Structures are given as C-alpha cells and as structure tokens.
Amino acid sequence: MELIKFEKVKDGKYLKNYELTYLNKAGKEKTYEIVSRKELRDIADIGKMSSGISIVATCNDRMLLLHEFRMGINKRVYNLCAGMLEEGETVEDCIERELYEETGLKIKQIKKILPASYAAVAISDLKTYIAFVEVEGNIDDHTSDNEDIRAGFYTREEVADMLATKDFSSRAQIAAYFFTVGGL
User: Quick check: pTM over 0.70?
Assistant: First the structure.
C-alpha cells in the first residue's frame, strides 16, 4: 500500500476529517477516511504526534474505574481515567490534571508510563500514553457540565464480575482483566 495524497475534508472543533488516497496491491486507488485530533500538514504528520493519556490507577489493591456516559455510543461504559494533553503540558502533568478533574484523586506514585500507542487504528491516527499509577485521596467530582462520570474503586472479585456483565471500553477491559488475574 502506498499513500499518494491526503486532503482535509472537515475541520471540526475537536476532530479533523481527512481522506487518504492509497494505491492498493493491485495498483488501484483506494480512498480511506480518518479523523485526527491534530492538524496534519503533510503525509509525514500522520500518526506522528501523541495527544493523550489513559490512566490505570489502583489504591489499596482496588482498581479505579469510571462509569461514564459516552456520547459516541449513547450509553454508559466502564472506562479508565483519560484525557488529552494540553499545549505545552508534560505527560506527568496531564496525568495529575486528568486524574484530579475526573476523580478528585492525587497521584501517590507513577509506576510506569508506556510509550505512546495507537488508540483506534481503524479510524484515527490518535496516539496515547498508558500510565500505571498508585493514587490516594477521596473521590470527588470536578468534571465539566459536559461530562457524566462516576468514579469508583473495585476489588479483583468485583471487577471479575463486572467483566462478565458490564460494558467496557477496550483498554479498560484489558486493564481490568489483568487486574483480576494479579497482573497489575
């Protein structure tokens, strides 16, 4: 596959829509649509920049999960604390800010920050970091009027039951599974 051109087709407030034109294996043109949170100026910019963080947080052998309404699917799902890097913000500062905004909690220890990975390869060039942290404090809502988030701590047994019966985002589901088998 060879990318031969791209064109922005919509410039939304948070997402930019692009059409990518490829030459496929048979030498025929194939147009593919993606969204990006970043302004792509040329082909080399696609998938280059990291823009967010997902936080796998624990406290006293319990996992933090958010039960939040997601407009893109019109329902509540269990998810990780997550958010977008602001201009000039470090990854560590983003972790601290997002954790506080969505839960009121504070970082006790950052255990590991993985290199940025692609979050939705079928539709976007979005790259996010995954951070593993130990947190402390009391849960308190500091979210905006446009967020409907209920944070909670869950034991391994509770998370195992939830995995069998509740809806999760894919990253939260993977992290929750590894939490239940003692991998976190």
Answer: yes
